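User: We ran a pulldown and think these components assemble together. Before we commit to crystallization trials, I'd like a predicted model of the whole complex to look at. Sequences follow.
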Amino acid sequence: MWNFVSPRIVFGEGALDALDELQGHRALVVTDINIVRLGLVDNVKAHLTKAGIDMHVFDQVESDPSVQTAYQGAQMAQDVQPDWIIGLGGGSPIDAAKAIWVLYERPDIEPAAIAPVGDLGLRKKARLITIPTTSGTGAEVTWAIVLTDTTEKRKMGLGHPENIADIAIVDPEMAAGMPPRLTADTGLDALVHAVEGYTCSWHTDLTDGLCLHAARLVFRYLPRAVSDDRDMEARERMHYAATCAGLGFGNAMASMAHAMGHSLGGAFHVPHGRAVALFLPYTIEFFSSQAPDRFAELAASAGFLNAGGEQGARQFAHQIRRLCHDIGNPNSVSEAGIDRKAYEEQLDKLADDAMNDTQMVTAVRTPSFEETRRLFLYAYDGRIVDF
Amino acid sequence: MAFKFPSDEWVKEFARQINSSKAYEESGKDWEGDWIFTVEADDAYPKAVYFFIGLYHGKVTDAALIESENAREAQYFMRGSFTTWRKTIEGKLDPIQGLMTRKFKLKGNLAKVLRYPRSAKELVNCVLRVPSEFPS
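Assistant: Here's a predicted model for the assembly, 523 residues in total across the polymer chains.
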């Protein structure tokens, strides 16, 4: 027995018009200051005004939102008493919106205990709308929440199926202004979701197709979207790829590249998509003997001829490295600009945090502490994994 | 030799598997907290059974079949039907998925449990290593 959870998804050009029909009184938009500056909050406000909804804005969400930010947003929600919470932005504002919503409805729960067990009892005060302005995180259609414990410099994987959005508005116009680097980082995040959703131990027939198609779209359209920001076809297809991958991995799980990426991001603030994509080829090589056919199937689906089996998996890792290279993303931690000494000083913590990340639960091969440490070292140097 | 589930011999073998697991010793090195597992009666098994497992710093301190959920002090409680436990022991149900689909119920400090996913996974690996037999 398992569940497939999804919001109602309104997608395509003009999808934001769905806000015009919204029933309610007050909305709290959770976002960041850049989204305000880009005028995207004004876009949302224009639609909410048509619906007769009074809008308030919490724009203090930082990259990798902290537990403290979630509490601040929840306090504002308590003051405003919204009946809609709207997560507007990339993964950080949307994750923050989910956490703020939970804390608004359940002030008795501490953020670290938001887990998919028992009942949360949400939707007594408000409902959630998610509007992504990047094409990659899939946060608009997942119930996952990543918050950072700033004291321990550790990302926490949280969430409960109840905190999935009621409505996800996937309008490619909202992501049209992404600069190339953000397009690359977030687009690669979608690829990692697709690959890990397809190869983790919780994948199902209901998620496989979404992951395969999302990976195919990323290989086809991400280079175009990065190289030409006016290529609206590529941008639109990437926006849908992100949502497909979100539905895929969100109803299966991610895996070790996410665990390692969370760990690196917590310690060195590497953007999430860049971090997880950097580690993906290494984890594929590490897993290649355990689930070779799954990776080879992904490669074949994306149009790469391969030898099948373990060799096919390794060829797929190579194709991912090539994609990262072609769009200007790092293929090693060293290329990501992290100082070797600082990295080695953090190595035990990096390995420990990765191994205790919730995404490790579905890894098809369980590494020892020493193997995890070695993987971090191989990823620093850009060495092909041979153990 | 197979161990009958549920029995005191079975839980002691489970404890032996945990204590010989380097991976659990490593992942649970900071864990402090005792568990009581309740096997609830269902169509396949007529009466409830209770197991105590004491866990401290990567090792089992004590493991026993006990009379009731209140027979020993513990900080964490996990309940599920006999059939749910059987599926878990046979490797047919991931207990984390079991918790998410409410086949298992958990009581205790959830925030603390969530910090030890690797230990949880290794405990599952240990349970899979117990040669188990079930009443027909």
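The mean pLDDT of chain A is 96. That may be worth checking against your pulldown data before setting up trials.

User: Thanks, that helps.
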